[in-house]
Amino acid sequence: MTSTFDKGNERQPSPWHCAPVLPLAPQTDLPGRIGVYDSGVGGVSVLRAIRAALPRESLIYVADSGLAPYGDRTPEALQARAEQVADFFVRQQVKALVLACNTISVIAAANLRAKFSLPIVAMEPAIKPAALVTSSRTILVMATANTVRSQSVARLCAEFGGNVRILLQACPGLVERVERGEFTSAATLELVASYVRPGIEAGADTIVLGCTHYAFLAAQIANIAGPGVTIIESSVAVARQLARVNPALPLPEQAWHPTSFYTSGPPHSLSAFLTSVSEEHTEIRSLPLSHAE
User: Fold this and answer.
1) pLDDT of 20 higher than 50
2) What's the pLDDT score for residue 127?
3) Are 163 and 171 in contact, with CB atoms under 8 Å apart?
4) pLDDT tens digit string along 83-112?
5) In terms of CB atoms within 10 Å, which of 84, 113, 242, 246 comes out highest?
Protein backbone atom coordinates (compact mmCIF):
# COMPACT_ATOMS: atom_id res chain seq x y z
CA MET A 1 0.00 0.00 0.00
CA THR A 2 1.17 3.49 -0.72
CA SER A 3 0.03 6.61 1.06
CA THR A 4 -1.72 9.39 -0.80
CA PHE A 5 -0.21 11.91 1.54
CA ASP A 6 3.37 10.76 2.09
CA LYS A 7 5.84 10.67 -0.74
CA GLY A 8 8.03 8.41 1.38
CA ASN A 9 11.02 10.75 1.21
CA GLU A 10 11.99 12.74 4.24
CA ARG A 11 12.72 16.32 3.24
CA GLN A 12 14.10 19.32 5.04
CA PRO A 13 12.70 22.25 3.01
CA SER A 14 14.69 25.42 2.88
CA PRO A 15 13.13 28.35 4.77
CA TRP A 16 13.54 30.36 1.58
CA HIS A 17 10.71 28.30 0.08
CA CYS A 18 8.35 28.77 3.02
CA ALA A 19 5.24 30.88 2.60
CA PRO A 20 5.27 34.30 4.28
CA VAL A 21 4.09 34.44 7.86
CA LEU A 22 1.36 37.00 8.32
CA PRO A 23 0.04 38.57 11.51
CA LEU A 24 -3.53 37.87 12.48
CA ALA A 25 -5.82 39.91 10.28
CA PRO A 26 -7.92 42.31 12.37
CA GLN A 27 -11.02 41.58 10.35
CA THR A 28 -13.03 38.37 10.33
CA ASP A 29 -11.93 35.85 7.73
CA LEU A 30 -14.25 35.36 4.79
CA PRO A 31 -17.62 34.14 6.15
CA GLY A 32 -19.16 30.89 4.96
CA ARG A 33 -15.99 28.85 5.00
CA ILE A 34 -15.62 25.39 6.56
CA GLY A 35 -13.40 25.12 9.62
CA VAL A 36 -11.02 22.19 10.06
CA TYR A 37 -9.43 21.67 13.49
CA ASP A 38 -6.60 19.36 14.52
CA SER A 39 -4.04 19.19 17.30
CA GLY A 40 -1.41 19.80 14.64
CA VAL A 41 -0.61 18.84 11.06
CA GLY A 42 -2.34 15.44 10.96
CA GLY A 43 -5.67 16.92 9.91
CA VAL A 44 -4.14 17.98 6.60
CA SER A 45 -5.02 14.43 5.47
CA VAL A 46 -8.67 15.21 6.26
CA LEU A 47 -8.37 18.64 4.66
CA ARG A 48 -7.36 16.99 1.41
CA ALA A 49 -10.24 14.54 1.54
CA ILE A 50 -12.67 17.43 2.10
CA ARG A 51 -11.18 19.34 -0.78
CA ALA A 52 -11.61 16.31 -3.05
CA ALA A 53 -15.24 15.81 -1.98
CA LEU A 54 -16.19 19.51 -1.97
CA PRO A 55 -13.79 21.24 -4.38
CA ARG A 56 -15.76 24.50 -4.50
CA GLU A 57 -15.64 25.10 -0.75
CA SER A 58 -13.16 27.43 0.95
CA LEU A 59 -11.53 26.21 4.14
CA ILE A 60 -9.90 27.49 7.33
CA TYR A 61 -7.44 25.12 9.00
CA VAL A 62 -6.31 25.39 12.62
CA ALA A 63 -3.25 23.44 13.79
CA ASP A 64 -2.93 23.63 17.57
CA SER A 65 0.71 22.58 17.32
CA GLY A 66 1.71 24.75 20.25
CA LEU A 67 -0.14 22.32 22.54
CA ALA A 68 0.45 19.12 20.56
CA PRO A 69 0.38 16.26 21.21
CA TYR A 70 -3.12 15.97 22.65
CA GLY A 71 -2.76 12.28 23.46
CA ASP A 72 -1.44 12.70 27.00
CA ARG A 73 -3.38 15.81 28.11
CA THR A 74 -6.28 15.60 30.53
CA PRO A 75 -9.82 15.38 29.13
CA GLU A 76 -10.73 18.52 31.08
CA ALA A 77 -7.89 20.50 29.51
CA LEU A 78 -8.79 19.25 26.04
CA GLN A 79 -12.46 20.13 26.42
CA ALA A 80 -11.53 23.64 27.52
CA ARG A 81 -9.12 24.02 24.62
CA ALA A 82 -11.65 22.72 22.12
CA GLU A 83 -14.15 25.33 23.32
CA GLN A 84 -11.56 28.06 22.78
CA VAL A 85 -10.83 26.88 19.24
CA ALA A 86 -14.51 26.41 18.39
CA ASP A 87 -15.21 29.95 19.61
CA PHE A 88 -12.45 31.20 17.31
CA PHE A 89 -14.11 29.46 14.37
CA VAL A 90 -17.49 30.94 15.30
CA ARG A 91 -15.93 34.40 15.27
CA GLN A 92 -14.62 33.60 11.80
CA GLN A 93 -18.25 32.89 10.80
CA VAL A 94 -17.62 29.37 9.53
CA LYS A 95 -20.72 27.49 8.44
CA ALA A 96 -19.50 24.06 9.65
CA LEU A 97 -16.68 22.69 11.78
CA VAL A 98 -14.77 19.45 11.19
CA LEU A 99 -12.90 17.94 14.12
CA ALA A 100 -10.05 16.42 12.11
CA CYS A 101 -8.60 14.80 15.22
CA ASN A 102 -9.70 11.52 16.76
CA THR A 103 -8.62 12.54 20.25
CA ILE A 104 -10.55 15.80 20.33
CA SER A 105 -13.52 14.09 18.66
CA VAL A 106 -13.88 11.31 21.22
CA ILE A 107 -13.31 13.64 24.17
CA ALA A 108 -14.96 16.93 23.23
CA ALA A 109 -17.42 16.50 20.32
CA ALA A 110 -20.52 16.02 22.50
CA ASN A 111 -19.66 19.03 24.64
CA LEU A 112 -19.03 21.23 21.59
CA ARG A 113 -22.32 20.22 19.98
CA ALA A 114 -24.13 21.15 23.20
CA LYS A 115 -22.50 24.60 23.34
CA PHE A 116 -22.34 25.65 19.68
CA SER A 117 -25.13 25.72 17.13
CA LEU A 118 -23.11 25.22 13.96
CA PRO A 119 -22.86 21.74 12.34
CA ILE A 120 -19.92 19.81 13.83
CA VAL A 121 -18.55 16.73 12.07
CA ALA A 122 -16.38 14.52 14.28
CA MET A 123 -14.42 11.37 13.59
CA GLU A 124 -13.72 8.13 15.38
CA PRO A 125 -11.43 5.16 14.72
CA ALA A 126 -12.79 3.05 11.85
CA ILE A 127 -13.39 -0.03 14.01
CA LYS A 128 -16.74 -0.84 12.40
CA PRO A 129 -15.44 -1.09 8.79
CA ALA A 130 -12.34 -2.93 10.00
CA ALA A 131 -14.52 -5.52 11.75
CA LEU A 132 -16.41 -6.04 8.50
CA VAL A 133 -13.35 -6.67 6.32
CA THR A 134 -10.98 -8.66 8.55
CA SER A 135 -10.47 -12.28 7.58
CA SER A 136 -8.37 -13.27 10.58
CA ARG A 137 -10.95 -11.76 12.96
CA THR A 138 -8.20 -9.71 14.60
CA ILE A 139 -7.68 -5.99 14.07
CA LEU A 140 -5.06 -3.59 15.38
CA VAL A 141 -6.12 -0.06 16.32
CA MET A 142 -3.27 2.46 16.49
CA ALA A 143 -4.19 5.67 18.30
CA THR A 144 -3.15 8.15 20.97
CA ALA A 145 -3.40 7.14 24.62
CA ASN A 146 -6.42 9.40 25.17
CA THR A 147 -8.26 7.87 22.22
CA VAL A 148 -7.46 4.29 23.28
CA ARG A 149 -8.87 4.81 26.77
CA SER A 150 -11.88 6.89 25.72
CA GLN A 151 -15.50 5.90 26.27
CA SER A 152 -16.12 6.24 22.54
CA VAL A 153 -13.59 3.55 21.71
CA ALA A 154 -14.93 1.36 24.51
CA ARG A 155 -18.39 1.72 22.96
CA LEU A 156 -17.10 0.82 19.49
CA CYS A 157 -15.31 -2.24 20.85
CA ALA A 158 -18.44 -3.38 22.67
CA GLU A 159 -20.63 -2.82 19.61
CA PHE A 160 -18.43 -4.35 16.92
CA GLY A 161 -16.02 -6.60 18.81
CA GLY A 162 -18.37 -9.47 19.53
CA ASN A 163 -16.80 -11.77 16.96
CA VAL A 164 -13.58 -9.84 16.44
CA ARG A 165 -10.52 -9.44 18.62
CA ILE A 166 -9.61 -5.75 18.84
CA LEU A 167 -6.05 -4.91 19.85
CA LEU A 168 -5.78 -1.33 21.11
CA GLN A 169 -2.28 0.09 20.70
CA ALA A 170 -1.38 3.51 22.12
CA CYS A 171 1.45 5.04 20.07
CA PRO A 172 3.20 7.75 22.08
CA GLY A 173 5.82 9.65 20.12
CA LEU A 174 4.40 9.21 16.62
CA VAL A 175 2.51 12.49 16.58
CA GLU A 176 5.65 14.43 17.48
CA ARG A 177 7.62 12.76 14.69
CA VAL A 178 4.96 13.59 12.11
CA GLU A 179 4.83 17.17 13.40
CA ARG A 180 8.56 17.41 12.69
CA GLY A 181 8.19 15.83 9.25
CA GLU A 182 10.30 12.82 10.28
CA PHE A 183 8.49 10.27 8.14
CA THR A 184 11.32 7.93 7.19
CA SER A 185 14.08 8.41 9.76
CA ALA A 186 15.53 5.29 11.36
CA ALA A 187 14.14 6.34 14.75
CA THR A 188 10.64 6.80 13.31
CA LEU A 189 10.68 3.45 11.55
CA GLU A 190 11.89 1.72 14.71
CA LEU A 191 9.10 3.34 16.72
CA VAL A 192 6.45 2.42 14.14
CA ALA A 193 7.71 -1.17 14.09
CA SER A 194 7.46 -1.40 17.88
CA TYR A 195 3.75 -0.58 17.65
CA VAL A 196 2.89 -2.58 14.52
CA ARG A 197 4.75 -5.87 14.85
CA PRO A 198 3.15 -7.15 18.09
CA GLY A 199 -0.31 -6.81 16.53
CA ILE A 200 0.73 -8.52 13.32
CA GLU A 201 2.35 -11.34 15.31
CA ALA A 202 -0.93 -11.68 17.23
CA GLY A 203 -2.75 -12.30 13.94
CA ALA A 204 -4.08 -8.88 12.93
CA ASP A 205 -4.73 -8.57 9.21
CA THR A 206 -6.34 -5.12 9.41
CA ILE A 207 -4.89 -1.94 10.92
CA VAL A 208 -7.02 1.05 11.89
CA LEU A 209 -5.22 4.40 11.91
CA GLY A 210 -6.97 6.08 14.83
CA CYS A 211 -5.04 9.34 14.60
CA THR A 212 -4.98 11.59 11.55
CA HIS A 213 -1.23 12.13 11.94
CA TYR A 214 -0.66 8.45 11.19
CA ALA A 215 -1.97 8.87 7.64
CA PHE A 216 1.42 10.42 6.85
CA LEU A 217 3.05 7.16 7.99
CA ALA A 218 0.67 4.84 6.13
CA ALA A 219 3.31 3.67 3.64
CA GLN A 220 5.79 2.94 6.41
CA ILE A 221 3.16 1.08 8.45
CA ALA A 222 2.20 -0.97 5.40
CA ASN A 223 5.82 -1.90 4.69
CA ILE A 224 6.34 -3.08 8.26
CA ALA A 225 2.99 -4.90 8.43
CA GLY A 226 3.71 -6.79 5.23
CA PRO A 227 1.52 -7.91 2.31
CA GLY A 228 -2.07 -8.88 2.88
CA VAL A 229 -2.65 -6.37 5.68
CA THR A 230 -5.41 -3.80 5.08
CA ILE A 231 -4.95 -0.28 6.44
CA ILE A 232 -8.04 1.83 7.12
CA GLU A 233 -8.34 5.49 8.07
CA SER A 234 -11.37 7.77 8.31
CA SER A 235 -10.66 10.92 6.30
CA VAL A 236 -12.79 10.00 3.28
CA ALA A 237 -15.72 8.98 5.50
CA VAL A 238 -15.49 12.31 7.34
CA ALA A 239 -15.55 14.20 4.05
CA ARG A 240 -18.64 12.26 2.95
CA GLN A 241 -20.39 13.08 6.23
CA LEU A 242 -19.51 16.75 5.81
CA ALA A 243 -21.02 16.70 2.33
CA ARG A 244 -24.25 15.32 3.84
CA VAL A 245 -24.54 17.97 6.57
CA ASN A 246 -22.98 20.89 4.69
CA PRO A 247 -25.58 23.68 4.98
CA ALA A 248 -25.20 24.98 1.44
CA LEU A 249 -22.77 24.93 -1.42
CA PRO A 250 -21.37 28.28 -2.56
CA LEU A 251 -23.45 30.24 -5.01
CA PRO A 252 -22.04 30.30 -8.56
CA GLU A 253 -20.94 33.91 -8.19
CA GLN A 254 -19.04 33.24 -4.96
CA ALA A 255 -15.30 33.01 -5.49
CA TRP A 256 -13.25 30.12 -4.17
CA HIS A 257 -10.39 31.18 -1.90
CA PRO A 258 -7.21 29.34 -0.90
CA THR A 259 -7.18 27.64 2.48
CA SER A 260 -6.33 29.94 5.37
CA PHE A 261 -3.95 28.30 7.84
CA TYR A 262 -3.64 29.21 11.52
CA THR A 263 -1.28 27.67 14.05
CA SER A 264 -0.54 28.05 17.75
CA GLY A 265 3.01 26.82 17.13
CA PRO A 266 5.79 28.45 15.12
CA PRO A 267 4.26 29.46 11.78
CA HIS A 268 7.47 28.64 9.94
CA SER A 269 7.24 25.04 11.19
CA LEU A 270 3.76 24.59 9.73
CA SER A 271 4.90 26.23 6.51
CA ALA A 272 7.87 23.87 6.27
CA PHE A 273 5.64 20.83 6.86
CA LEU A 274 3.12 21.91 4.23
CA THR A 275 5.94 22.45 1.76
CA SER A 276 7.39 19.00 2.54
CA VAL A 277 4.07 17.30 1.67
CA SER A 278 3.46 19.51 -1.38
CA GLU A 279 0.49 21.28 0.18
CA GLU A 280 0.05 24.66 -1.50
CA HIS A 281 -0.34 27.58 0.88
CA THR A 282 -0.05 31.32 0.56
CA GLU A 283 -0.23 32.47 4.16
CA ILE A 284 0.01 31.20 7.71
CA ARG A 285 -1.30 33.20 10.64
CA SER A 286 -0.72 32.86 14.36
CA LEU A 287 -3.73 31.52 16.22
CA PRO A 288 -4.83 34.29 18.63
CA LEU A 289 -5.31 32.00 21.62
CA SER A 290 -3.30 31.66 24.81
CA HIS A 291 -1.26 28.51 25.38
CA ALA A 292 -2.57 28.32 28.92
CA GLU A 293 -4.37 25.05 29.70
Assistant:
1) no
2) 97
3) no
4) 999 999 999 999 999 999 999 999 999 999
5) 242
Q: Look up residue 264 and give its amino acid.
A: S
| 245 residue type, one letter | V
101 is catalytic: yes
**DSSP, residue by residue, 22-90:** EPPPSSPPPTT-EEEEESSSTTHHHHHHHHHH-TT--EEEEE-TTS---TTS-HHHHHHHHHHHHHHHH
Closest listed residue to residue 208, CA positions, set 198, 220, 224, 196? 196
Q: Which of 18, 157, 171, 211 is catalytic?
A: 211
Q: Which helix (H) or strand (E) holds 120?
A: strand 120-121
Are the CB atoms for 175 and 69 separated by under 8 Å? yes
122-150 tens-digit pLDDT: 999 999 999 999 999 999 999 999 999 99
User: From the CB of residue 194, how many other CB atoms can be counted at a distance below 10 Å?
Assistant: 13
